[in-house]
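ARCHIVE ENTRY
Sequence with per-residue tokens
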Amino acid sequence: MTIELKYLAWVCVLTALIWVPYVVNSVAVRGLTDALGYVPHIKPLAPWATRMRAAHYNAVENLVVFATLVLVAHLAGANGALTAFAALAYFWSRVVHLVGYTFAFPWVRTVSFLAGFLCQMAIAAQILLAVPVR
């Protein structure tokens, strides 16, 4: 397994687990019945849980791009040191993004998002510049 695929798996695991804390907060705030049901007037989540939920949505949206690029690089044989580093850095940028967004650390959300975007673009550049068109 390549490093890129390994970090794709780790990003998927991270993204798959993000919902757990904010759903636990939903149950704690609303009670099990209201958290699982369709109540017209629900109590709001804690501010950190609302931010974590938004970070989760962002992680899912960006997973589509990251996964596609990693898989294309793998299938095209365009992976190397740059794509390996970009995949590793992307994973850690998502971890930092989640923590920064959840706990509202100034600038952290934006800078870590930008870092992740640059990692995606590095993989894209490797694909587009390193693979001959047939």
